[in-house]
Amino acid sequence: MIKLGIQIIPDMAVQEVGDTIRAAEELGYDFCLLADEGFMPDVYVCLGAAAQHTARIRLGPVTNGYTRHPAVTAAALATLNEISGGRALATLVAGGSMVLPPMGILRESPLTVVRESLEVMRRLWTGEAVTWQGQRYRLEAARLSRGAQTIPVWLAVRGDKLLELAGREADGVMLMAKSDLASAIGIVERSSIGRSRPPQRLYLDRIAYTPEMLAGAAYSYTYAIMDSPGRMLRGLELSDEEIAQLRQAVATGGPAAAAKLVTADMIKKYQIAGPLPECRETLRALIAAHQLDGFVLNIVSGGLAANIRLMTDTRSIVNDQ
What we know:
By secondary structure, the chain is α/β, with parallel strands linked by helices. Helices cover about 50% and strands about 15% of the residues. The protein has helices at about 15-25, 45-50, 70-85, 110-125, 160-170, 180-190, 210-225, 230-235, 240-260, 265-270, 275-290, 305-320, and strands at about 5-10, 30-35, 60-65, 90, 130-135, 140, 155, 170-175, 200-205, 295-300. It has an eight-stranded parallel β-barrel, surrounded by seven helices. Helix 3 links the parallel strand 3 and strand 4. The chain starts with a strand and ends with a helix.
């Protein structure tokens, strides 16, 4: 059976983050990912609190090696693993427009940052003293006080070289953009040839089946345009003129201004959208066509009651496979 998880963008009260995670566990979700967005509630404080009030659901951050040194991340995850009784997992990203520009951080050498972050974390999780030199990071007789750890690491990435890295090294790869699934999975498959256990395939989406959800999807779509590589943009079938217009709108008026240019057809190429029966059929087709191992529901707004309804509806869609 396909695994079911949530990713929370914690632009909500801390209490609501915890309540959402507990509700996800009660609804039978397998894992919760919490985005490390820098200026929002701290990811490890929230996950540590959630670990104390849950018993089964796996917990982990979606984080990067720009805003947090991977050795610090390794120690934080080891702590979370201890508090949760071995339920920690990690998802690495290459940084994005929501986090890095406000901190004045340039997104330089993303492949190196992700590859070496993964290397640093896994070396430290051996429990041994580590001396190691990379291009960006180094360790000098570094040893975690919590000892050896077994923590899965997923990569949520878009670029070709990062997808190849996921195929070679990651325990799972989280994929975005419905129209890009075949292309992205092809890259991962080719680079994972020879591995005894290829990475799990997880698809991140925020199902939209109400007018309010479609409006939110239009807003989120603008970030995809800002952060996606050319391969993904081609899959969305956008012209150079349309891409330029959307990016100009973001630059001058922000995501809300750009969202006014996003049509329902554009959204449907990017994510699952439409009436609930249509969403169900679309997801069923995606799972079968791409042999997906997991579906990750993206929760991007506050409102506990609304998000519980969304999780409940999504569970019914996924379990109807």
